Amino acid sequence: MSKLERFDKWLTTDDLAAIVIREPLTPVEGPDGVFFPATFAASEDKTFPGGYNIDPPTGDKNVCLVDSVGSQANRMEPLFAKPPYSELVPQVVIEAGEKKVNLLEASHRAGDAIVRCTPLQKKLQEAFSEVLRGNAVLLAKIAPTSLVFGVWDSRDTQAKLPRLIAATIRAFDVQRLTRSAQFIPTVDYIGLGLLEDTKDKKLKDAYSERGFIHVPASGSHGGVIARSGIRRDVTFSLAALRLLSAANDDEQTLKLRRYVLGLSLVSLTAPTQTYLRQGCNLVPDVDKPRTVELVHTSGKRDPLTLSHDEALTFAQLAAEAFKVGDSLTARFDPELAKKDIAGSGEAKQSRKSKGKATEAKSE
Hints:
Radius of gyration: 25 Å
Number of strands: 18
Distance between the termini: 51 Å
Number of domains: 2
Structural class: alpha+beta
Number of helices: 12
Helix content: 25-40%
């Protein structure tokens, strides 16, 4: 068996469901260190007031979302813009004014507005249409990481591909803290007669906003302490990977799956970011081992050992066999954006066509 064929059983049989990683983490300050989870906006119906996502919101036995699935994906995907990983995927760069944006950084990946409003629009539309027909090869030639981390062409064809890799960081039994602060201006501008004293609220607010008077801040988010630890959970769905195909071409299907598997294994085994945000720098807990398991569809679990070098070697072989798509640069077109907003562009026509096809099928 060649190195390229090493994982073919994962790709061609229904014996294996997923690879699951559980990695205990700890703040750099230590297990009892204070760290800051992500904060979220309030829900429209106000059932969630905003702030930390802690379930249940009161009580000691709770779970706090530290970093979401989407956030983790956004931290992992840009790896493929750097050597040697950049050779594994096409580098698609969008010029938007004076800024250059790699597709690997786009919020909605291949379904994002920044790429939809470029000359690539028709090519991506064709790729998503092929996905709906059971052929993911064309999309893999343009935006292969969209197959790894998921994509939804919600503004056009409605083609949707699930995340193969889902990673989340959660903390358990957290104690919520608050903090207060007091801004003190460099000098007493009013006391020194440099600014006039006033009772006018609008003017006082302006003084405050521009840093000319004392500003108290009380009871704001002060981080949390995780009394029962922090854990990063990662699931790589092999069952979902096996849904990818090149229509009825079995040979090309295997090449496609190997290629996407290689990208996924590189993502799984690459060193993870420890700095998530201000006040949240989490590292592996050396006192609690990281576990990697190969989960069978029967429920059986086997320990899995795979180094990053092994994953990269396989990914390079798979990429060579699949033939990575061409790198290219496209310019954001404001006129296409205007048509897209007005509903008169290619995406509009695609939605109409899809709607007619669906209506005809239902009859």
